[in-house]
Amino acid sequence: MQSFLADFNRVLTSVNNVIWHNFVLYIVLGVGVLFTIWSGFSQYRALTHGAAVARGKYDDKKDPGAINHFQALSTALSATVGLGNIAGVAVAISLGGPGAVFWMWVVGAVGMALKTTEVTLAMLYRNTDNPDEPHGGAMWVASKGFGKLGLGGLGKVIGGVFCVTVIISAITGGNMFQAWNVGIITDTYFRVPSIVTGIIMTFVVGLVVLGGIKRIGAVTGRLVPFMCGIYLLAALYVLVLGFDRIPEMLTLIVRSAFNPTEAQNAFLGGTAGYAFLWGMKRALFSNEAGQGSSPIAHAAAKTDEPAREGILAGLEPFVDTIVVCTLTTLVVLLSGAWNRGPEAHFLEAPRIVAAAQPNQWTVDTLEVPAKDPAAIRVNGPWLARDTVFVLIRADLDSQTGRDLHRIPGRMVAGPDNTLKIEWGTYTCEAQPEFVLEADGRAGLYNDLVGAALTGHAFDRVNPGMGKWIVTVACWLFAISTMISWSYYGEQGVVFLAGSKGVMPYRMIYCLLILVSTAGIITTDAELDNLTALGTGVMLWANIPIMLIFGHQAMKAYHAYIRRLKNGEMKGHAYPPISDVVEGKDVK
Fold first, then answer.
1. Is there a domain that residue 258 lies in?
2. What is the DSSP string of 428-467?
3. pLDDT over 60 at 148, yes or no
4. Is the predicted pLDDT of residue 50 greater than 90, yes or no?
5. Are 267 and 113 contacting, i.e. CB atoms less than 8 angstroms apart?
6. Which of 436, 471, 494 is the last residue of a domain?
7. Cα dihedral sign, 246-249-253-258
8. Closest CA to 478 of 177, 96, 74, 233
9. Which of 17, 362, 376, 401 is an S-S bond match for 271, by CB 3.0 to 4.6 Å?
10. How many CB atoms lie within 10 A of CB 96?
11. Cα 200 to Cα 196: distance, rounded to the nearest angstrom
């Protein structure tokens, strides 16, 4: 089984090297800039007019659709504001350095124009045969759009390909990534086995997704503001404590984006190019700009103005990347968690010796060095099942441009309840050597993956804070994301197989929550392979559709803006906020 998984991960790595080649990132960035200029900087309209639309000023229960504008935005945001904001940002900084965040900002800014374009396009082509259950997304754009050109067969094929990519992304980044991270952080802080977390999440997600888009909209409309509020208040607390250092951190972000020396200050990160790669990947995974996912949620909105919904959608990357991701970034940087030191030191550096297989190396010791007092104050003593690693110097990594690597290990309890370390291996030809501290000692690091690293950042500011804030936030963010992505994948199934395929899809989707928390996925690298595949294939399918039909979205957008400037969009008085959140203003 382990051999099969290793081979499978190697195949995924090879595929991802193609679909995430740097030229793909340049194309996505270029398309975002194109629509930013073409729309006359639609970002401004999203922040002004879009806010009024979200508040319910233009809600009309007579319009076709199932949910109001706010609920459509909440459903889309619940899919984007998730563990990508907590875990993804921490991964980007630890691997790409602070400079990765600058490229996240860039993607967030141009992503606002991408979202406006793709949602407007989806609304132009959505299927409203049943006004209470509309269907929309890039698959309908391709099918209907090419149909108008007399290429209906080609449109259905392209739409089908997009649906396959949606389903892949739903079960990987929208589902397994979320469940795995929640399982890891719950186990890290509360010693609850990941599989138990998986069982609970399967039950909760299953209850909601069985109710369809109206139940999903009702749940996310309440859950998104609540979960964002909790997390933002905790982040603001850290920012207030380190307020005087915020300008320094913002300067570090910008400087590191272009200066390879600064970028190498990351814990394992590399060159400025590596920062660009990780910033772009994490931002695209987090805010989903250009993927074509959120148009599926917005297609359910009650409206007869396609561009209005597109302008509203432009708010998503702003909230997700510019606001939430930036707050996480500042917490990680201000706390010093991004380039932290070891939690313990070996009295004498152990040897790195040959393992059982050729060209594999491991650590020749079972000793567990005592944790430093400062580390104990932050996250307590060593416990069984803690994952750890040592830093080594070995062959040059072509991606990072550095020679830093790690050999992983896991704490296990012996017969007399004493702890020992079971070491993994690292593969290279020449014998690696330890990375030593300034005092000549070898360090042992607690392996804080994704969300656990963000929790550690909070704990460094106030011990115990990360344990509760990040764990609760992870549960809420992950559940909301899995709920929304289940709907995205479901719409792909409807396009491909009709409604008869919905129930089997829902059952498989929930089953994969259990699979991802059952111990099959063991490292963040394996998980990144899955999530990168899901995100990447959607970009390959959706960006060409946007380029072919984007002129129609821009035509509708500019016509709408002209009417808005001429005072033709009167709207009505703002309804009570409680009615907007609960969707009562359109019932």
1. yes
2. -SSPPEE-B-TTSPBEEEE---THHHHHHHHHHHSTTHHH
3. yes
4. yes
5. no
6. 436
7. positive
8. 177
9. 401
10. 33
11. 6
State residue 264 phi and psi, 5-degree precision.
-75, -5
Q: Is residue 377 included in any domain, yes or no?
A: yes
pLDDT at 471 over 70: yes
| Residue 421 host element (H or E) | strand 419-423
Question: Has residue 443 been placed in a domain?
Answer: no
Q: 441 in a domain, yes or no?
A: no
Half-sphere exposure in the Cβ direction for 69 (13 Å, CA):
31
352 and 334 housed in the same domain: no
224, 85 in Cβ contact below 8 A? no
Give the ranges where 242-314 is alpha helix by DSSP (H).
246-258, 260-263, 272-287, 294-298, 306-313
**What CA–CA distance (Å, rounded) separates 145 from 124?**
10
Domain identity same for 379 and 513: no
Answer yes or no: do 491 and 365 share one domain: no
> Among candidates 171, 278, 281, 162, which has minimal Cα distance to 538?
162
Distances (CA, A) of 239 to 86, 242, 252: 16, 5, 16
Could you say which DSSP state residue 372 is in? P
Return the amino acid letter for 380.
G
Based on the fold, state whether residues 197 and 77 are members of the same structural domain: yes
Rg (CA), the chain: 24
DSSP state of 175: I
List the one residue out of 443, 272, 248 whose CA is nearest residue 336.
248
- List CB contacts of 404: < 8 A, sequence separation 6 or more: 268, 391, 392, 393, 397, 435
Indicate whether 114 and 244 sit together in one domain: yes
pLDDT tens string 269-318: 555 566 666 677 667 766 778 888 889 989 989 999 999 999 999 999 99
The amino acid at residue 155 is: G
Return the pLDDT at 238. Answer: 92
**Cα 495 to Cα 160: distance, rounded to the nearest angstrom:** 7
**Which two tokens mark 134?**
């509309």
What is the token pair recorded at 321? 């990347």
Enter the DSSP assignment of 354.
E
CA–CA separation, 449 and 88 (whole Å)? 10
In angstroms, rounded to a whole number, what is the distance separating the alpha carbons of residues 45 and 55?
15
The residue range of the domain holding 90 is: 2-339+461-586
pTM, to two decimals:
0.84
Q: Is the pLDDT of residue 440 over 80?
A: yes
Q: What is the pLDDT of residue 138?
A: 92
Instruction: Characterize 333-357 residue by residue with b for buried, 16 or more Cβ atoms within 10 angstroms of its Cβ, and e for exposed.
Output: bbbebbbbebbbbbeebbebeebee
Which residue, 181, 201, 136, is CA-closest to 490? 136
The backbone region for 128, taken as left when phi is positive above 0, alpha when psi lies in -120 to 50, beta otherwise, is alpha
User: What is the Cα–Cα distance from 169 to 535, expressed in whole angstroms?
Assistant: 6
